[in-house]
Amino acid sequence: MNFTRNLQTNLSKNVWTKTILLFVFFFAFAKGNAQILEPVKWTSKIEKKGNNAVLIFDGTIEKDWHMYSQFTPDGGPLALEITFKNQKGNYELVGKAKEGKTRTAFNDVFGVDETFFEGKAHIEQEIKIINPNLKTVDVDFDFQVCKEVCINSSKKFSIAVPSTFKMDEVPAVTEAKADETKVVGLAVDTVKKEEAAQPKVEKTAEAEKEEIPAPAPSRSLWSIFFIAFLSGFAALLTPCVFPMIPMTVSFFTKQSKSRAKGIRNAIIYGFSIIAIYVILGLIVTKIFGADALNALSTDVWFNLIFFVILVVFATSFLGAFEIMLPNSWANKADQQADKGGLIGILFMALALAIVSFSCTGPIVGTLLVEAASNGGIAPIVGMLGFSLALALPFMLFAMFPGWLNSLPKSGGWLNTVKVVLGFLELALAFKFLSNADLVLQLHFLEREVFIAIWIAIFGAMTLYLFGKITLPHDSPTNHISVGRLYLGLLTFVFTMYLIPGLWGAPLKLISAFPPPPQYSESPFGVGGSGNGAVSSESIKGLPEGAELGPHGIMVFHDYEDGLAYAKEINKPIMLDFTGYACVNCRKMENNVWSEPAILPILKNDVVLISLYVDDKRELPKEEQFTTAAGDKIITVGDKWTDFMISKYKTNTQPLYVITDLEGKNMNTSKPTISYVNADEYLNWLKEGISNFK
């Protein structure tokens, strides 16, 4: 107490001391509230490679943050964009920029696989210099980096080109001349612990479940192995493979001089099958390379071509024709197999792979592409799982020949398996067509159309399993088996499950396949209902600049329009700084805004203004400007980003602010709020609205 009293006495005697302390407190407060984050620090250099040069960019990413790769597909978080500013007439790009180690994890909010860097980002671009007088290579990076929040940043590099390309004359590291970084806050993608400068965020059970980064690479490979293993068993039950089991096992047991030798030969035969398919996976990986395969999986033409291939495979499985390798290949393999010994056994396995290609080829092709999209050794792991399932029965039945008596006899059921695989191939094909449509933003295959196609495919599959449809290679039958009945009931239930998706149901079981809900003819579902219970009548009479947003909440996307309406009806404004690629923005809208205690408040007690910081529409020329920091405001998203940073000293989303009609914050304890649970959000809303009144 004495210390406090003495301090007060001294302060009262010295007005300059008061002034200085006021400045100290001001800057301390400003620092404590500013949240302009730069989680990636960059360096760049140039190296010689033959007659060309290689630009090398290394980013150090802060702990718990991750930066999205240029190979993250459209429809999800924003991928890295690399722009070469002074390329024309100076240099040519040699291929696409290559990336160092990345991770891939599925994001069930956007329904895409995200590819991202952790810890370090390494990017290389080979160039061929055509202008001998070139002094610098100017490159712009636009990238998204995420933790609890996501930030879209741009980095400008100006890399000096040495007069010669002797390695000892190349600078080790050339820092970018332009150090200014334009920071645009975007989507929240992961839910971990909040930084001390941010309000404390409680993680809901749903958020924990959707946490990214998701599985480690090893877990992803195990997933690929398991799916491939099941696919191998499916191939085993086709007419091209299943009848070969008793024939092959009988051959080994009869031709071998002893039972032990027969078992040994059958095991060698099984390992030969595994070796053939694993080598195939190795060849695919070596020819294309992990990075190329990953990039290929998000390419428009690749997706279109593979759509056509899968439709051809499906048509073959359904019985229109058979895809077969040349007979000469099988004949040559048989001739080599007749020689006996280890080489003969190997060629017997090769003959099986060739003869059964009409059944196994479509499955193997699908597996290779799906595995290749994960990069690395995934194709090898996929082929290992597939071939192991294919080879195991041959080895096991050779060890225990008595088991052959328990095998079901070949018959029409084998063709049923093949036809069912054809329906599944056809359904999967439209996923690749959807990928291409999403990238091009053609809106040809929107969510409702995709779901309708799947309803038709699985509905036809149900009718086929119930015996109401017959296909060319089906055997005549007066009844269906119990197993076929159960499978028909399962597909019937699945078809019924899909139907509400036309009216806006989320269809979480297949969230990885159809386009996201916002990529649809109507975000509220067929008929305009959806989960917000919005009807066409409720859209009539909206004020100028307004539209119906999530759950039927009226929302403005321009600040001036929203402010004018708020003044007209005398209600507080809730600013919602959001992004089209904002994961946690969608989580807040889906899980928090929809709460019964919160939704009426957002509909009736505030004027909601949602400002998208990743809106790429270009502003009219007269509205474009350059900030004091030198950042060019060109797009609508730039405008709202600059507004958020200059006004609220933060660059992260989601960000919510309640203001009065003069722009003054209405919340005193927490002027702004981000990703929180429903209770905290509700209390914050009530406080802001109460202070406005």
TrEMBL record:
The Thiol:disulfide interchange protein DsbD N-terminal domain, residue ranges? 45-158
Could you confirm whether the keyword Membrane appears in this record?
A: yes
Q: How does it sit in the membrane?
A: Multi-pass membrane protein
Keyword Membrane carried by entry? yes
Q: State what protein this is by name.
A: Cytochrome c biogenesis protein CcdA
Major subcellular site: membrane
Compartments where located? Membrane
Instruction: List, alphabetically, the InterPro entries matched.
Output: Cyt_c_assmbl_TM_dom (IPR003834), DsbDN (IPR028250), Thioredoxin-like_sf (IPR036249)
A Pfam family of this chain: Thioredoxin_7
Tell me the classification of the organism that encodes this protein: Bacteria, Pseudomonadati, Bacteroidota, Flavobacteriia, Flavobacteriales
**Stretches that traverse the bilayer:** 221-245, 266-288, 300-321, 342-364, 376-400, 412-430, 450-471, 483-503
User: Keywords on this record?
Assistant: Cytochrome c-type biogenesis, Membrane, Transmembrane, Transmembrane helix
Source species, domain of life: Bacteria
Residue ranges of domain Cytochrome C biogenesis protein transmembrane in the record: 222-434
